[in-house]
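Ligand-bound model needed. adenosine-5'-diphosphate.
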Amino acid sequence: MSSTTVFNSTTPHRDADAVNRRLKKRYAAERRFRLYGLLSVAAAITFLVILLSSIVANGLPAFQKTYLQLDITFDQNLLGIDDVSDSGQLISADYQRVVKEALKVKFPEVSDRRDRRALNALVSNGAAYQLAAMLKADLSLLNTSQSVWLYADDDVDTYFKGNIDRNIPESERRLKDKQFQWLDKLEAEERVKKSFNWTFLTAGDSREPEQAGIRGALMGSFYTIVVTLLLSFPIGVAAAIYLEEFAPKNRWTDLIEVNINNLAAVPSIVFGLLGLAVFINFFGLPRSAPLVGGLVLTLMTLPTIIIASRAAIKSVPPSIREAALGVGASKMQTTIHHVLPLAMPGMLTGTIIGMAQALGETAPLLMIGMVAFIVDVPGSFSDPATVLPVQIYLWADSPERGFVELTSAAILVLLVFLATMNFLAVLLRKKFERRW
Amino acid sequence: METLAVNEAALEALDQTVEITADEMDKPEFKFDKTVGSIHSENPRMVMRNVNVHYGEKQAIHDVSLDIGANEVIAMIGPSGCGKSTFLRCMNRMNDTIENCTVSGDIKLDDVNIYDKKQDVVTLRARVGMVFQKPNPFPKSIYENVAYGPRIHGLAGSKAQLDEIVRNSLERAGLWSEVKDRLDAPGTSLSGGQQQRLCIARTIAVSPEVILMDEPCSALDPIATAKIEELIDELRQNFTIAIVTHSMQQAARVSQRTAYFHLGYLVEVGETSNLFTNPSHKLTEDYITGRFG
Ligand SMILES: Nc1ncnc2c1ncn2[C@@H]1O[C@H](COP(=O)(O)OP(=O)(O)O)[C@@H](O)[C@H]1O
Ligand SMILES: [Mg+2]
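Prediction:
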């Protein structure tokens, strides 16, 4: 039991110079190390700033939209309305024609058919919906003349946002010289304005950039994430608790553990295939629905949540469990009253990572049809929908200049969505983190 | 408390962890046949007969029999790793939570076998409370720490009753005057000694009959230790106490009987005063005089 060590060697001679030199070297090494760390942090921040500022710079214009003011006459004959009480007629009336008429009045000198078409192209065909909505809201407008701010076409919008160069040859640009003259005239009369693009926040997808909105994808993402969260959090936490606190340690639980870890590394598109085969083909759930998307993403995020939750449970000191068991708490009481609250912050962190992953995921959703072109804003879990990242992908793929801005704007919306979610999670975690 | 004619200096030197290795079993001087001294108690509360404990293949307790009498403090001493904690944890089935631990033999609390299939561990642990080596208050308020046990066992019918239990327990643990103004403060904000007394209050709040203490002072300074020892002596009026300690002075100060364990065997048990002044077994003598090994 007793052990003695004999120091045979003499104490090493301490040379003051050598000590100083060594110290200096050590301090230098420490400073260098700090510098490396600082540099890598700076590099990371620089990239982040570049990325964010380019997205913001590209995306912000999409929140503004160009309007043209025209004097519209709601001529009953031109519209082709003979029964005012028929709402079907009000909707399907020929508003296009009224717009054309207004342009004709404004620019009487344009007579050539080709020029007329070029003139009409300045106004978005979404203007018809604007007029329909106006008339429906106020029938007394019929047969009156009104000054109305109408949506400009996306090319006009692009021009006023400074993205069309008038100096390049006419054949290579989207707007022709004559159109520029007309626009100049309108601008001189202060009949051009830019204001907030509510369409972007309230409309679904469209083939026309000036009519396309993010609402459909946003709601699709929202419904999908709700399904994912409602399923994966309780299932993940329950699985983690069972595996950590209750399961016997044997070959079966080892096997399950290995498989969960492997699942976390499976490419996400495989989950999409699984979802297609199981949820859609076998259970007959609707295609393109947030419900199925949520189910697939649940499968994908479960391993992440389980692994994080298990780590969180493991980090709860065993002395707390002993204390609870020692006063006669049952296993379940110990877990629910003591282990779970202490593990909750870690579990929430894992869940948020999983949810962020799910929110940014496209591949598995392509397999279950959430990539379809969907105009209507989904109103329930089973309506056809798409999600933000898929919408970004769809827009990025479209040729019109207007979609470039929309793409960046949609990325901004996605980032805001993510940031909000993270913020909520941080709040929740703070609430639970009162560990004394 | 009796003062013992033990060489304090020798004890001081020994008041530290003594390590023994497994192959010491094979050394010629270790021959174990029978526990020396009387394992019986006049008024037994817990009766243990032929207890064997295995961790997997490894046997940690060999055929130990011992009585613990009502209102007595029994100290268990012995070198580190000799199985004191293991034996103590058998008495409220804390060993159940260890995966590969198997217990055989008879352990009775008031003539009822606690390892019986019909015995509910939750009620057992309410009757046989435990205080651990490291103070382990819940990360909750002082009040909640003490109130938790009574609450889960439904001991209080009303808030007033619960308040009364909390106050009473803290008073009996000698902590009331120090914390009565800050019952809402976190239990972990107390000093180590106060935390340990809080843990004792938490244990007595569920009115156990037996209290097991596993080296309750090993993480505390001498003043806090003295307070706990005083407390143990007071608690003896109402509870039966089994205390594991690595300090022989502490055993001498607080206990009426002492049991000396060696490598999983109960070597000698007897009146504390007797055992320290006049040990019968060679191993016991070696241990308490520091000539061990
Ligand atoms: N959970 C466990 N698993 C396996 N062996 C253990 C475990 N706990 C204790 N042991 C072994 O049992 C023996 C007795 O340990 P313990 O009761 O903690 O001794 P003491 O409390 O007297 O220091 C030791 O040899 C120890 O290594
Ligand atoms: Mg021990």
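The longest strand of chain B covers residues 44-55.
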